[in-house]
Design goal:
This protein has an eight-stranded mixed sheet, with helices on both faces. Helix 2 crosses helix 3. It is built from five helices and eight strands, in the order E-E-E-H-E-H-E-H-E-E-H-E-H. It has one domain: Alpha/Beta hydrolase fold, catalytic domain (Rossmann fold). The protein starts with 5 loop residues before the first strand and ends with a helix. The mean pLDDT is about 95. The protein is globular and about 40 Å long. With about 210 residues, the chain is an alpha/beta fold.
């Protein structure tokens, strides 16, 4: 993301995982872990939406941790339809954010995996913010967001997303009475609207 990005390899459940860390100026509020889109469709930690989420986290005082799921980049292993990828995410959290305030963010497939991580961790960890962008609700079984996390959760979706239809996200959110922020005219990758996406996430993280 910038010249100060720290890259490392950490142990994961299927081999080493490639991790990128960006730190804010001064003391961090906590650690934000950001998950990338589908590994089989070109998703990596350098995805523009993922970088936008990480940048917003750093700008609001969080240490931002991005990583490649198994089989992507220098991460070892093979794609596992979300099951192993959840284990990857939990391993990164355990290693890079073992304690203290936690922010979880994900884009598309990454939002699906992040929803399950939040469900798994919420009872025992201080999940201060949850950010789900382009949530892949039409393709995967996205976990419900615990009621106590609703006020800490931001769900963003493009009005004209032709990869994950907005209607599928509304069908997931409606039974939970979970608000969804819709970007007018927005597509799945928010082309031309990344600055707006960053501002929406910044507002949420700073609230």
């Amino acid at each position: 993301m910038n010249a100060q990005t720290e890259y490392l390899l950490q142990d994961g459940p299927a081999g080493r995982l490639e991790v990128a860390i960006d730190r804010p100026d001064g003391d961090a509020r906590g650690v934000a872990v950001v998950a990338h889109p589908h590994p089989m469709h070109g998703g990596t930690l350098t995805n523009k939406v993922v970088q936008t989420l990480a940048r917003a986290c750093v700008m609001s005082g969080w240490t931002a941790v991005r990583f490649n799921f198994r089989g992507v980049g220098r991460s070892e292993g093979v794609y596992d339809e979300g099951r192993g990828e959840l284990d990857d995410l939990l391993a990164v959290i355990a290693s890079q954010a073992p304690a203290g305030p936690l922010c979880l963010a994900g884009f598309s497939f990454g939002a699906f995996v992040t929803s399950h991580a939040a469900s798994r961790l919420a009872p025992e960890r201080d999940v201060q913010r949850l950010v789900l962008v382009g949530t892949a609700a039409s393709r995967f079984q996205v976990a419900d967001v615990a009621a106590e996390l609703h006020r800490r959760t931001l769900v963003i979706h493009g009005e004209q997303d032709d990869t994950v239809p907005l209607a599928s996200v509304m069908d997931w959110a409606r039974p939970q009475a979970l608000p969804v922020t819709v970007v007018p005219g927005g597509g799945h990758f928010f082309h031309g609207q990344l600055p707006l996406l960053r501002e929406l996430v910044l507002w949420h993280l700073r609230a």
